[in-house]
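step: validate -> pass
step: tokenize input -> pass
step: predict -> running
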Amino acid sequence: MKKIIISSLVLLSFLGFTSCSEDKIDTYNDTDNIYFSYAAFPGITSGSDIVADSTGFSFNFDNASVKQRIYRIPIRVQGKISTKDRNIKVTVDPMSTAIEGTHYSLPKDIVMRAGKVVDTLDVTVFRTPEMKANTFTLVLNLEENDFFTTKMKTKVINVLTKKTISFTRFKLSFDDKLAQPPGWFTPFFGAFTAKKFFLMCNLMNLKPVMFNQKLGAPGLAIPEMQYYQNFMKRYLADQKAAGNTIYEEDNTEMFFP
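step: predict -> pass
step: emit ->
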């Protein structure tokens, strides 16, 4: 009896092994879909921790010598990896307010490089005077071509508001508007002006973006801001004594309390 049981177990084990060896693992066999990565994965490079189909940036804290920026938008493939470069078709949506050649430029050839499932579309954004008063938008659409389909369209991300997110449309906004940052402490620095702000940063090698933090953040503690204030007061007084009074853009004398 014992021998019969052992023989049965061996036979069942063999049959089970044979059955498992014949099973095939399902592989992706649909078309290769192209989509904007931020719609499915957090926008780490843009500082966001949520999925999005739009983003923006400003030149406002950049030095005046900065005339352009490159913004990299990740594009991802749902499908197979290729051993060859594959062209990606991108079109500019008519709702865009930015003008090609004036406010931005796109690469001549946009490709998913060989061996990659995610690559970037590098948008060169030009800093123009009108950006100080206006925000411009560039809306890009992914289109089907010989290499990729666009079956991933939209998905609902909020069932209550019915808000959707697009996988094939991405909006990039940009401007050069400079408003008083949260780290500007008026009792120490006086009225905010762009000229005063950048002069102070340049003289003391301060990063302008630091002032985009709340008061008390690193570099913005009371003792540090008192030092900035006293430094600027001495600088302005020394320049005036030397016959080089510093003026604001409206020709009023620059002042720190």
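step: describe -> The mean pLDDT is 85.
step: cleanup -> pass
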